[in-house]
Amino acid sequence: MKYGFTSYRLLILLAFLFGYICLCASENVKKSIDDLQDESNEGNDDTKESLDIMPENENTEQINSNSNNSNNYNSNENDSNNKNNNSTTCTRRANSQMHEILTANHKQFPFMAAIMSHQNDYLCAGSVVSNGVILTSAECLQKPVNYVLLNTTKAKKEDTAVMLYIKNREKFPSFAGSRGKDIGIIFTEKHNNSVASKIKLSNMTSLKGLTDFEGLGYGLNTEVNQIKELQYIGVEYRPFEDYPDLLEGYFDCVDTKIPTCFKDFGGPAIFDNELIGVISSGQNQCTSEMSSKYAVSKKLVRVVPTYSFKAWLEEKIAKVEEKQPAALATYPSQPAVNNVTKNTMCHIL
After folding, report:
1. CA 200, CA 273: separation in Å to the nearest integer?
2. Separation of alpha carbons 180 and 150, rounded Å
3. Is the pLDDT of residue 211 over 50?
4. CA–CA distance, 84 with 255 (Å, rounded to integer)
5. Tens of pLDDT, residues 145-166
6. Given its phi and psi angles, is residue 273 left (phi above 0), alpha (psi -120 to 50 degrees) or beta?
7. How many other CB atoms sit within 10 Å of the CB of residue 200?
């Protein structure tokens, strides 16, 4: 009986030991699983931390972008209307005629005419296309025109200036008021062939191959009450898409500190020493400084191309030249050199 009781106690002890061992093993397994989970969570925390950094990276990129925008501020400010805002547009044409406003020398443009009023005020510019025929804008003819000055670089009476009375005027047939083709002709007294040269009409039938041209006029950037001197500027050609019979000239990619605007009309647009059009309007608002660094673009002039009115003009010239006393030299040739007095060259007012 005693032996049986002892055996029973031994079985209980063995059962207890077996349960304890299983419990410890279970705890160890649980601990191992928890450790693995902790290690896994540590990895997840790293991933989460890296994801949290992403907005910081975006902020950094934004800061860099703002910094770049700040560096480009002056460029955007000076060239808000220029679609091609880059330096390559300033150097792509090695033989460009574009240049800042320059003052003309005496006899540099012997075909230029200053059209004046009864009160000796300057009204607009014109071009000699034949002896006694001045080409200008129709808008100019709506002003109180009285006489023209040839052989002068200043829009006033001076020793070298030749004054000719205006005998008649004619506007292009389609011009009415301020609408239609803005072209006009002034017929003046004939003059000696030593007074002026005539400008040749361009044979261009389109301007697709044109890149730039020069615009001429009196007092392009002159303030009120100042003497208007003959000036010229090189501009970039751009077609006027809304009106195929018009073109526009822009001042672009030229370094200058000269106040730049075009306060004149009626004068010529020339390319390769030929008349490619008549300037119908300019821009009065001057820009004080332009720099090619920022590819500044400013519209200066609107031009009626020669090919759109050439046939009409040549018909008018032919009628006048039937009784021409002396043929004029064609620019860039200079007028004939004759020793004549002022009284024999012009009609004195």
Report:
1. 8
2. 28
3. yes
4. 17
5. 999 999 999 999 888 899 999 9
6. left
7. 17
Query: Which pair of tokens denotes residue 25?
Result: 């093993």
Q: Is 255 helix (H, G, I), strand (E, B) or coil?
A: coil
Strand, helix or coil for residue 198: strand
For the chain, strand residue ranges (E) read 99-103, 112-117, 122-130, 133-136, 145-150, 162-171, 184-188, 200-201, 212-218, 230-239, 247-252, 268-271, 274-282, 297-305
More confident residue, 71 or 167: 167
Using CB atoms within 10 Å of the CB of residue 3, give its burial: 0 to 12 exposed, 13 to 18 middle, 19+ buried: exposed
Structure tokens at 28: 């160890």
Comparing CA positions, the residue from 203, 219, 244, 104 lying closest to residue 155 is 219
Name the amino acid, one letter, at 19: G
DSSP for 36-48, written as a single string: HHHHHHHHHHHHH
Nearest in space to 79 (alpha carbons), one of 302, 293, 301: 293
Q: What is the C-alpha separation between 255 and 211, in angstroms, rounded? A: 19
DSSP state letter for 161: -
CB 347, CB 157: distance < 8 Å? no
DSSP 185: E
Q: Which two tokens stand for residue 263?
A: 């306060």
- Total-model pTM: 0.71
Quick one: how far is CA 75 from the chain centroid?
15
Tokens (6 digits) for 159: 């020793």
Which candidate, 287, 295, 297, places its Cα nearest to that of 262? Answer: 287
Cα(130)–Cα(195) distance, integer angstroms = 12
296 neighbors 318 (Cβ within 8 angstroms): no
The single-letter DSSP state of residue 149 is E
What are the pLDDT digits (tens) for 7-47? Answer: 556 666 666 655 555 544 445 444 444 444 444 444 444 33
CA angle 139, 232, 306 (to 5 degrees): 50
Res 87: pLDDT: 41
Helix, strand, coil percentages (3-state) for the chain, rounded to 5, are 30, 30, 40
